[in-house]
Amino acid sequence: MNATGILRGCLLLVAAAIAACGAAAQAQTYPTKPIRIVVGFAPGGPSDIISRLVGTKMGEILGQQFVIENKTGAGGTIATEAVGRADPDGYTILNAPLANAVNETLYPNLKHKVGDGLVAVAPLAETANVLVVHPSLGVKNVAELIALARQKPGAILYATAGRGSATHLASELFNMMAGTKLAPVHYRGGGDALKDLLSGEVKVMVSSIAPVLSFVRNGQLVGLATTGPKRDDALPELATLSEAGLSGFDVRLWQGFTGPAGIPKPVIEKFAGAAAQALNAPDVKDALTQQGFAALTGTPDEFDAFYRGEVAKWRKVIEASQMSLQ
What we know:
By secondary structure, this protein is of the alpha/beta class. The chain is built from eleven helices and eleven strands. Strand 6 (157-160), helix 6 (166-178) and strand 7 form a beta-alpha-beta unit. It is elongated and about 80 Å long.
């Protein structure tokens, strides 16, 4: 190597060292201003609930306010693209639920994906789902719902939190496995969908447990089954859909934090550490349990692998089933 090459190599090493030192220094002072958590769904839904709960505790840990911004529409993609375009400084973070992983298949023109414009930051929480119906439908179990739906194909409406959302996918998977044709009504978030479910305007919904738990307990809604691989601690009296005849049915909602690609790794690690500390706090753990949630643990790298695995899983389901998501 000639002198010019040696000099160029030395300069590159120096530049890398300076960048590393700068990132480390930034992490030491981070955060110096409020952190914005962007939620792609309406207030009152699971993403909103968990962002506010954990964000409040993280604010105490990091000494800065966490501001929740609900940017609804297009199944969460509006929020995703807004965060993807944000400065990669760790001050704009996206609450990325299962719907975001699904959107990477449903929206081929999506500009920002994890590994391409977005980066996994931290896992957050997961919850089982519950199949609920309005009492006016007159069914008490899964077998009765299936029988009624087969008698009235396309006549029974189910609510979703948006086209391509987890509630939509889970319901379409139910249709596939049960041989039914429940018809979707799409809303701009779980909170809006729940309002019409409670009024009886729509009759069926696969919901995360948190928003509907009290309504199941007081009889305003009828819980038929949960959707995980085992009975849920929040509703142990309900069988799983697999137990109720749809063998192998397993759908759980999860959410985590992602951000614009380019956030310095030390900043990601500091944010992820604060998230893990918040999720391990006794008051947060109790609140999650009461709402039907559990912490989703792991490092940023582990969440990255988990997220990519979910993208691949649901891509196979969507392509194999040819769900009506258009």
